[in-house]
Design a protein that fits this description.
With about 450 residues, the protein is α/β, with parallel strands linked by helices. The chain folds into three domains: about 10-60, no CATH class; about 80-95 and about 335-445, Alpha-Beta Complex (Aspartate Aminotransferase, domain 1), CATH 3.90.1150; about 100-330, Aspartate Aminotransferase, domain 2 (3-Layer(aba) Sandwich), CATH 3.40.640.10. It is about 35% helix and about 20% strand. About 40% of the residues are buried. InterPro entries: PyrdxlP-dep_Trfase, PyrdxlP-dep_Trfase_major, SelA-like, SelA_trans.
Length: about 450
């Protein structure tokens, strides 16, 4: 007769529920009606394996089965980003950190988004997010949060240059995502564009010659998603600020202060210090928060934007304000951690993944893999790292898994890059590849 050890009762692996007991649990009644028996049993067995490995507590089995097998309340599919592209536009750009997710849970109910609990009266909307933003960028006199960067630019053009001219370099009239172009966006506000310079070279004299009584402001746009090299010339913000008219500067990516890993990316604090009247930035991308647009600058100018009637149509909801405030107050974000991930750590994780797969007789090897910032940020910068190489046939079943894993297809290979996947989820990557292996082996006619 086996003698139970002193610590056995405390070991959750000693209390693995029976498969039939889990399948009969009343909480799974709805699933038993909607899900195929073999699929439901497979989900239960997978959860029980996680209990045996110590990854999951015995009392969490049914919750996990419900979450992973049940009918989701949204058509959006959870994905693991194994592409190596940090700010991946098609995958929702910046993933939110734990603090931001917690903030969304709080904001889901009734909250004091524009209510003063001390006086019982209406308060300024989103003051927490604005205060957090100003704490990060002290050079700004005030700030406004809008639903994206393009909205902030449209509001600035409407409020500051409606029926007047915006002076801008031809080399900065860029096209942004999904075919939207800055010239068309600005002209839709009723402002007129006064283009100066050429595609590759613009000088201070070009701006001076164009500025006149009808000038609403000078616009400076960081190209973000492309580079022009060679015989080029551009006028920096500090020189534009001396022209005697407001300067609206769109940095695009959302960097609030200089970042040592992104030396060529402009930031809001520096451009405000150089004399920009208003800086427009993204709230996600490099900042790593929810998608929104930020307008920071002189108090009087920001107030003009805030009081303009169009601002009401472009404002963000309580969920965005909550997630943005939490992101601004957090010590780090998943985006920042992915950008600065150490190559040695990435190689170690890739080697461990390769070892686990080799034990299951999966053909995998570790290869060098350069990541990218993505989202229009730092287009000329590569992020050294490592990936696990699989046959290209893995790409589709990995994407269709639960959660789906989106890898990078390159030269007939499927590369699983762990840069954008938290190390705590490496076990999910292993299970995803093994599940894809079972599908491939099961459908292979050979």
């Amino acid at each position: 007769m086996a003698v139970r050890g002193v610590g056995d009762e405390a070991d959750p692996r000693r209390r693995v529920p029976r498969t039939d007991a889990v399948l009969a649990d009343p909480r799974l009644a709805g699933l038993r009606e909607r899900v195929r028996p073999d699929a439901l049993k497979a989900s239960v067995l997978s959860a029980l394996d996680r209990v045996r490995s110590g990854e999951l507590g015995p009392d969490r089995v049914v919750d996990v089965v419900l979450r992973e097998t049940g009918e989701d309340p949204t058509s959006l599919r959870p994905l693991l980003n194994a592409t190596g592209v940090v700010v991946h536009t098609n995958l929702g750009r910046a993933p939110l950190g734990e603090d931001a997710v917690r903030a969304l849970e709080i904001a889901a109910g009734y909250v004091d988004v524009e209510y003063d609990v001390a006086t019982g009266r209406r308060a300024r909307r989103g003051r927490g997010a604005v205060d957090a933003l100003l704490a990060r960028v002290p050079a700004a006199g005030d700030a406004l949060v809008l639903n994206n960067g393009a909205a902030a630019l449209v509001l600035a053009a409407t409020a500051l240059a409606g029926g007047r001219e915006i002076v801008v370099s031809r080399g900065e009239l860029v096209e942004i995502g999904d075919g939207f172009r800055i010239p068309e966006l600005l002209e839709s506000t009723g402002a007129r564009l006064r283009e100066v310079g050429t595609t590759n070279r613009t000088h201070p004299a070009d701006y001076r010659a164009a500025i006149g009584p009808d000038t609403g402001f000078v616009l400076k746009v960081h190209p973000s998603n492309f580079l022009v090299r060679g015989f080029t010339s551009a006028v920096p913000v500090r020189e534009l600020a001396g022209l005697g008219v407001p300067v609206v500067a769109d940095i695009g990516s959302g960097l609030l202060a200089p970042h040592p890993s992104l030396p060529d990316e402009p930031d809001a604090a520096s451009w405000l210090a150089d004399g920009a009247t208003l800086v427009i930035a993204s709230g996600d991308k490099l900042l790593g928060g929810p998608q929104c647009g930020l307008a920071l600058g002189e108090s009087a100018i920001v107030q003009r934007l805030r009081r303009h009637s169009l601002a009401r149509a472009l404002r963000v909801d309580k969920l965005t304000l909550a997630a943005l405030e939490a992101t601004l107050r957090a010590r780090s974000t998943p985006t920042g951690e992915a950008i600065t991930a150490a190559p040695d750590v990435l190689r170690h994780r890739a080697e461990e993944l390769s070892r686990r797969l080799a034990a299951a007789e999966v053909s995998a090897r570790v290869v060098a893999s350069d990541g990218l910032v993505g989202g229009g940020g730092a287009p000329g910068l590569t992020l050294p790292g490592w990936a696990v190489e699989l046959p290209e046939a893995y790409a589709l079943p990995l994407r269709q898994g639960r959660p789906g894993l989106v890898a990078r297809i390159e030269q007939g290979r499927c590369l699983v890059d762990l840069r954008c996947i938290p190390s705590a989820r490496d076990e999910e990557v292993v299970r995803a590849v093994l599940a894809a292996t079972d599908l491939i082996r099961g459908t292979d006619p050979g």
